[in-house]
Every structure is written in C-alpha cells, then in structure tokens.
C-alpha cells in the first residue's frame, strides 16, 4: 500500500497545446521558458477537470505557487507542432503537491519532462497553508 501522501495509481491528465510563432526563438524552435508556460496551462486545466474552481479559492486568498521545478529538455518542438502536455500527480502533503509533467509531439516523441513542486499558500501573506479538504479529497480521488 502506498504511503498516505503518495498518490497510488494516479490518472494521467493530458492537455493539447499548439506551438505558435510567438513561442519560438530565432532558430524556429520553442524557447525553453515556454515549456514552463505549457506545463502551467496543463496543470490549470487538470484542476479544472477535477472540478476545482480556482476563482473561488483565489477569492478566499488560497492559491498554489510553484516552489521548485526541474526541467529536462530532450528534443525540440517547432512552430505549429501539436503537443500533448501531461500531468501526473505523484505526492501530496499537507501544504504541497508534487507532479511530473511530460510534453510529447504528435509522433509520441518525448520532448520535455518537468518535475514540479507547488505549495499551497495564503495569497495575502504568501505563507504556506494546509491544502483545503475539498481540494485534497478531489486530488486524492483523481476525479
């Protein structure tokens, strides 16, 4: 049995992203920082798919902020590529969430792996707070 804070058999969420001209550098490939933007969008859509309405929590001064990210760029994406960005939650703690995100091209080639640690904070004080029960339950359940 997995430890209480590990998310056993978590479902992998996938979100489509199209590479726009503005996402590329002078060489015509995706600028490295934009992989972080693609990952952020996928995490937002993952939360939305779970029924977590971030607007409600933001009104209550509760939000997630990225505390740490490790990015492994393996192959380039290019203008007009259709990408798939995954979110796979790995571990949830009292005030933080860890996930692995992968970005693939249409051919299924792995382009990027991001390991992300996000902290739940009070947006007024920017201090860590416990992840609210309703969010915790939905993430643990995975649906």
TrEMBL record:
SUPFAM superfamilies given in the database record: Thioesterase/thiol ester dehydrase-isomerase
InterPro entries hit by this protein: 4-hydroxybenzoyl-CoA_TE, HotDog_dom_sf, Tol-Pal_acyl-CoA_thioesterase, YbgC/YbaW
Swiss-Prot/TrEMBL keywords: Hydrolase
GO molecular function: fatty acyl-CoA hydrolase activity
Pfam families named in the record: 4HBT_2
Family membership: Belongs to the 4-hydroxybenzoyl-CoA thioesterase family.
NCBIfam families: thio_ybgC, YbgC/FadM family acyl-CoA thioesterase
PANTHER family in alphabetical order: 4-HYDROXYBENZOYL-COA THIOESTERASE FAMILY MEMBER, ACYL-COA THIOESTER HYDROLASE YBGC
Stated name of the protein: Tol-pal system-associated acyl-CoA thioesterase
